[in-house]
Amino acid sequence: MKAAQPQASASMMELAYQQMRRLILDNVWPPGHQALEQEVALNLGMSRTPVREALIRLANEGLVEVIPRHGMKVLAVSPTDMREIYEILTALESMAAELLARQAPDAKRLQPLVQATDAMDAALARDDLEAWAAADEKFHFDLIELSGNRQLKQTVLNYWDRAHRARMFSLRLRPKPVTSTQEHRELLERLLAGDVDGAVLVNRNHRQRANRELLAIFERFRLQTM
Fold first, then answer.
1. Is the torsion defined by CA of 12, 152, 148, 90 positive or negative?
2. Helix (DSSP H) and strand (DSSP E) numbers for the chain
3. Residue 155 has pLDDT above 70, yes or no
4. Which structural domains are found in the chain, ordered by start?
5. Residues 214 and 82 sit within 8 Å (Cβ to Cβ)
6. Which of 24, 156, 163, 169 is the 20 to 30 Å CA partner of 31?
7. Residue from 96, 83, 107 nearest 163 by CA
8. Strand partners, 71
9. Are 200 and 98 in contact (CB under 8 A)?
10. Strands (DSSP E) along 75-125, which ranges?
């Protein structure tokens, strides 16, 4: 029984972490949201120990600030944060596109990207922006995955969460995202053709356009943080 206790504790910490992370990423806990550790534990139906450990992990990821004797506060994302994050994601994802194009992938290997793009089209047709965002995110995740570079993938994931929060926050403030699907299909064509330079250029332009749209929302609505 004693040997099982650390494993059970780790399992509870992971559960607390995943639940709180999802509340933050989906903006159920918006930027600036504060809660006492005991309050969070009660809401999650668990003890304070796994909650405390999960909060430390979330703080290390830049999602919350742990405030001694005052629980935690969800951190906001500033325009500068988003610009820097998108610059990093643009560079790393363009590298992933280059690596994948150099491998001259066939249609079967690119099928996950095709399926994600088709799902984006279907979601837009029924005006389901949440489903569109999920399919779009899957496309970009699969692109990184298919590159085959594990270290690149891990580095991208370090910034993924904060970019996701801002994208979900701004989902209904942006124009209908028809351009993204078109750009994905163009990238697929370049990858299938083994066009390294073309794949890099299409992906870089795609990411830079998305960055401009997001930063324009900060400016238009005079947002200091998101």
1. positive
2. 9, 3
3. yes
4. 4-74 (1.10.10.10), 79-220 (1.20.120.530)
5. yes
6. 156
7. 83
8. 67
9. yes
10. none
In one-letter notation, the amino acid at residue 171 is: L
- Beta carbons of 93 and 85 less than 8 angstroms apart: no
**Spatial distance between the Cα atoms of 151 and 156, rounded to a whole number of angstroms:** 9
Dihedral, 44, 45, 46, 51 alpha carbons, nearest 10:
20
Structure letter (DSSP) for residue 212: H
As a whole number, mean pLDDT of residues 179-197 equals 96
Q: What is the pLDDT of residues 133-149, one digit of tens each?
A: 999 999 999 999 999 99
| Distance separating alpha carbons of residues 204 and 202, to the nearest angstrom | 6
Residue pointed to by tokens 């947002």:
223
> What residue has token string 């926050």?
169
Tokens 């506060």 map to which residue? 73
Indicate the residue type of 173. L
Non-local CB neighbours of 151 within 8 Å, separated by 6+ positions: none
The length of the chain in residues reads 226
Kindly report the pTM of this predicted structure: 0.76
| Other beta carbons within 10 Å of 80 | 10
Which is it for strands 71-74 and 64-67: parallel, antiparallel or unpaired? antiparallel
- Which residue do the tokens 């270290």 mark? 151
Residue labelled with tokens 């949201």: 33
Task: Please say whether the beta carbons of 117 and 186 come within 8 A.
Answer: no
